[in-house]
Fold this protein.
Amino acid sequence: MTDWKQMGWCDVCEITLDNGAPGDGVICAKCGFDSRKAQEQRVRTMTGQERIESAINIAIQFGGIDGAHHKDWVIDQMLRVLCGDGYDATIAASCDGEDGPNTYEHSVGIAP
């Protein structure tokens, strides 16, 4: 399977980016590495099969963590990998409904 490095990991310093607040862990306080941009770049270069394998790996690695907000994060990360550049359009379409473009909501959750 394709290796998965969760957002919250600095590829430069090789440390976790946890700075104590839920939802943080995107920018490394030590070197400024932006894990979200790095993950987006990795996804852009993946083949279809690598995307599927990565999504499966995310589900296996993080899917068993308790808490609906963490499971929301797992689903969101899987969607980001599978949809790639089409993620925003997919989320917009899923939120669209009978009452307009924001009928439903999508939660990005909180990283475990």
